[in-house]
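Reopening this ticket.

The earlier resolution said the output was attached, but the attachment link was broken on my side. Pasting everything inline this time so it's all in one place.
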Amino acid sequence: MVDRAARSPGADGIGGMTAPTRVSGAVCAYGCCTEQVAALPNGGWSTTDKGWKLDDRRREHVAREYAAISARIDRAHADYPKCPCGQRAIALDKHGLCSKKDIEHDRRRGIYAAPKTKARA
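Inline output:
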């Protein structure tokens, strides 16, 4: 059984961070699923008349999997340059900006013309 006391305060559902506790007899790579939980059809997902629903026994696994994937992406993007707006980009333009085309970015590029709008019919 997963130690629910190891959860951070206020953490509930998929968005909560969890301490790296292992379930005795765990069969998944994250150490949170028993054989019964790992064998749930469709990974624990099912449909109802209101949409998709995740089995409560599988939430811990999905939360850990999401945290691991997010951390891997953050590590991969850590060396990318950052635009003054906070956006990370593979490369910045000659003004040190990302590819956004909003008013603030245009002003930083020295473009002060009024944005073009379509004429009404």
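Reporter confirms the inline version is readable. The radius of gyration is 23 Å. Confidence is low (pLDDT under 50) at residues 1-18.
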